[in-house]
Amino acid sequence: MGQQSDYFSSDELAFLSAILTLIGSILAVLALIKERQEKLAAQEKPKNNQKR
Fold this sequence. Notes:
Keywords: Membrane, Transmembrane, Transmembrane helix. By secondary structure, the chain is mostly helical.
């Protein structure tokens, strides 16, 4: 029988790092979208107040 290793193989570590990088990229994009929406909302408020 082969000896069971308690550690991750290099392929598993590469896969896990790719998944973590992907998650980080998605979170960064979501943060940019949220920031842009907040900026647009801040620009819309003065326009709405001027119309009244």
